[in-house]
Design the sequence.
């Protein structure tokens, strides 16, 4: 016997003057292997044509479908309804600008963070296209790759009390990016440079250590360790020790 | 309605690997470049590419670009243009090095060089032993590349129009392209981008099929825009079905799984690829493996209660290899197939994956069409690159690892050529207001209210028709019926009405515009497929089982005007080396 699922979904379109924030209830029959991606599309197709939400890859790699699922940030496309109770509450990710209903502008936030933290490899000079790759230890490459797995879904920001209070806070996603470039021998920046970017309350010293980011990262990035290492590195840099 | 107008040197539609690599060249040259994307750039489908990018770096086994070229020509079933293929295989090497310098975290070998894995259709010495040519960042290579390119574009201050949907190209009476009408998705506000040059880099159209590895967004928008602007689509009958999609779901399991030693078995536990491709076995070309799987299932050797899939075995590789080299695959299998590949095999079946055809271009990314003086005259001001384009380097079948290569090499080449083009064409051409009005009218059509068919109803029916009538095996009868059905569905578009009439963030309107694009592209696929009476690469016809080099060494061109198909010859002469003459293709 399949379950009858109840969805309580946040509805509000700030661009529409007639729209008021509210929760709407929908029900549908659970099917085998149903994900929230499948359920939400079914609701939009059959019951609520104007329901707004974001999906792109539907395979957990693009990072566009973050939302609050029964109060916890997560990726809707890889959340099986089977793992949830009969009643499912869906809200948009907090801390981001609301576009409508479950759709938030994570892109704008990520773009601002990338510009502030200069999240790209800073090279000594423009790359020579014919030069061989820089040799790198496999372990070092793996360490960079491990941190490069971030899909910028925004779950860590929604799970972060500091980010909720300080819109300019780099958040785990930003601090992880700094850790990623700090680990990369191609980037010419050193700790004093990174200190300029994240050595304050908007950066690594703003983190209160609640670690909701670490608990809720859909990609299971080692955020706790990275933030700790970065904090230690920045402190040493500030004290003039390297 | 008031219309906002913006001016740029170059307009790039699409922010995947091709669009971003082109934009990077232009922004680095200090040109004013606008990138329009219907999603935030790092959500583009390049992010989903798993296995890697081919380049003959010879880091693991001996290799050179000429062998890579041979494999690509052979893989294309001799339909690829050999000048373009030579160009791509030569450029592959510096292209990968450039990416590495820009920060892509490639996996490494013990000697510190870029890790390369074996992929299907790769050989040493022109058909000899297996080669290892695919440069990989574990199994998330596309993600690593896309994020790096986006980061570099932020550094270079490329102007992004994020979450804008492109409606139509704007052309003048001489056929030159002057820019495009786009719409901000959140507000529904149209914007006219006037540009000296426009590059289409909108990616593929896998959403024409019901079961696909492609993202929600891969709706052939750029191809359909080109078709409506009078540009033909080339070789659209060649659609790649990736052998290993998660059965019933379509999500991709990379070929890298087989490259790392995984293999396919049927319900008898038989490693059946040994029968179809005695040498290459599970690493035969994708079309060969996809047909083998469908044949196994059709002949009753499928697995599961319905006998509707086969199994991909990975468990013998051990947890360490799976976790280290294929972590994303382990995760996807657990979520979408409910199996841990370390312990049990993954249920797989072919899934619509990649369109070899597209907007015809030369190797500089310039769109070429037959007008008066031969089959390849350039369209002024229009470029295309990536999956939406057809250079053609993939011919009738693309090799794994060549699509990331295609988008990077030709995105870059287009960017470089646009820089030269803009030196010679420093001014905007006068805007064609009549064409702007036509595009606005097409958009306005979706404001009609009343009773009618829903977008979903028509879309579901259309995607089912495409799957049934243009799938892995195709016969005259099945395809002819498919063409009629698609044409009938195109007529039905007139009766579609939106249930959501809000102007702002109206996703239903976007879906309706996408459906129009899908149907335009779907008809190109169906008609091109019906036209080609031979079996070549991904186009497999039981009623014409042989490849026919005497009559069919030609590219097909679909024109929307009159729904007609024309043909042009394959370019068999490479740039500097001897041509590879067609040979029987065995693996």
Sequence:
């Amino acid at each position: 016997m399949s379950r009858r699922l109840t969805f309580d979904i946040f509805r509000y379109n700030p661009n529409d003057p007639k729209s008021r924030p509210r929760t709407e209830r929908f029900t549908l029959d659970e099917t085998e292997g149903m994900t929230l991606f499948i359920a939400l599309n079914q609701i939009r197709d059959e019951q609520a044509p104007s329901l707004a939400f974001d999906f792109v890859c539907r395979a957990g790699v693009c990072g566009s479908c973050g939302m609050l699922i029964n109060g916890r940030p997560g990726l809707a496309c890889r959340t099986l309804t089977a793992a949830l109770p009969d009643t499912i509450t869906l809200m948009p990710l907090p801390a981001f600008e609301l576009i409508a209903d479950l759709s938030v502008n994570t892109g704008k936030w990520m773009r601002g963070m990338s510009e502030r933290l200069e999240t790209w490899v800073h090279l000594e000079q423009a790359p020579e296209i014919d030069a061989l790759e820089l040799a790198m230890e496999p372990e070092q490459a793996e360490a960079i790759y491990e941190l490069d797995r971030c899909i910028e879904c925004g779950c860590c920001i929604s799970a972060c009390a500091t980010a909720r209070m300080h819109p300019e806070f780099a958040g785990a996603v930003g601090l992880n990016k700094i850790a990623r470039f700090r680990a990369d021998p191609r980037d010419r920046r050193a700790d004093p440079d990174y200190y300029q970017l994240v050595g304050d309350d908007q950066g690594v010293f703003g983190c209160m250590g609640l670690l909701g980011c670490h608990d809720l990262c859909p990609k299971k990035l080692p955020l706790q360790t990275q933030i700790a290492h970065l904090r230690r590195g920045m402190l040493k840099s500030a004290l003039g020790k390297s | 309605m008031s219309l906002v107008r913006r001016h740029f040197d170059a307009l790039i539609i699409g922010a995947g690997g091709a669009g971003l690599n082109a934009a990077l060249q232009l922004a680095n040259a200090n040109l004013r470049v606008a990138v329009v994307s219907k999603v935030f750039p790092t959500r583009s489908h390049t992010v989903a590419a798993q296995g890697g990018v081919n380049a003959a770096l010879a880091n693991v086994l001996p290799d050179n670009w000429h062998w890579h070229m041979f494999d690509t020509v052979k893989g294309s079933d001799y339909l690829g243009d050999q000048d373009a293929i030579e160009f791509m295989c030569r450029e592959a090497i510096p292209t990968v090095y450039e990416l590495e310098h820009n920060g892509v975290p490639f996996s490494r070998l013990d000697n510190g060089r870029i890790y390369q894995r074996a992929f299907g259709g790769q050989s040493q010495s022109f058909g000899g032993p297996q080669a290892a040519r695919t440069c990989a960042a574990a199994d998330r290579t596309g993600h690593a590349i896309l994020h790096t390119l986006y980061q570099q574009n932020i550094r270079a201050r490329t102007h992004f129009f994020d979450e804008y949907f492109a409606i139509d190209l704007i052309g003048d009476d001489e056929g030159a392209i002057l820019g495009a009408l786009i719409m901000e998705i959140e507000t529904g506000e149209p914007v006219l981008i006037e540009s000296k040059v426009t590059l289409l880099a909108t990616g593929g159209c896998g959403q024409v099929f019901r079961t696909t590895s492609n993202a929600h967004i891969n709706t052939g928008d750029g191809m359909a825009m080109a078709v409506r602007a009078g540009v033909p689509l080339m070789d659209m009958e060649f659609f790649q079905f990736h052998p290993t999609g998660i059965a019933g779901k379509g999500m991709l399991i990379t070929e890298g799984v087989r490259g790392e030693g995984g293999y396919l078995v049927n319900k008898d536990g038989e490693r059946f690829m040994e029968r179809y491709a005695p040498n290459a076995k599970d690493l035969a070309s994708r079309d060969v493996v996809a047909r083998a799987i469908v044949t196994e299932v059709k002949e009753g050797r499928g697995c599961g209660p319905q006998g509707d899939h086969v199994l991909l075995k990975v468990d013998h590789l051990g947890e360490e290899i799976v976790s280290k080299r294929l972590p994303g695959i382990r995760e996807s299998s657990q979520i979408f197939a409910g199996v841990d590949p370390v312990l049990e095999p993954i249920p797989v079946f072919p899934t619509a994956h990649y369109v070899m055809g597209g907007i015809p271009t030369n190797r500089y990314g310039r769109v070429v069409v037959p007008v008066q003086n031969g089959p390849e005259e350039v369209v002024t001001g229009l470029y295309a690159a990536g999956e939406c384009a057809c250079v053609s380097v993939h011919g009738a079948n693309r090799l794994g690892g060549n699509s990331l290569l295609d988008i990077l090499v030709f995105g870059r080449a287009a960017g470089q050529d646009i820089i030269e083009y803009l030196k010679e064409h420093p001014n905007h051409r006068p805007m064609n207001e009549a064409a702007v009005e036509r595009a606005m009218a097409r958009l306005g059509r979706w404001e009609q209210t009343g009773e009618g068919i829903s977008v979903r109803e028509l879309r579901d029916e259309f995607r089912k028709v495409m799957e049934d009538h243009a799938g892995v095996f195709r016969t005259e009868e099945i395809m002819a019926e498919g063409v009629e059905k698609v044409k009938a569905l195109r007529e039905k578009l007139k009766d579609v009405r939106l249930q959501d009439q809000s102007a702002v963030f109206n996703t239903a309107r976007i879906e309706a515009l996408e459906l129009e694009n899908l149907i335009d592209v779907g008809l190109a696929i169906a008609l091109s497929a019906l036209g080609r009476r031979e079996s070549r690469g991904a186009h497999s016809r039981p009623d014409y089982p042989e490849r026919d080099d005497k009559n069919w060494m030609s590219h097909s061109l679909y024109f929307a005007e009159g729904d007609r198909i024309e043909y042009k010859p394959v370019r068999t002469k490479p740039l500097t080396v001897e041509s590879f003459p067609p040979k029987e293709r065995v693996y």
Summary: The domain at 434-565 of chain B is CATH 1.20.58.100 (Methane Monooxygenase Hydroxylase; Chain G, domain 1). Chain B is about 35% helix and 20% strand. The first strand of chain B starts at residue 4 and ends at 13.
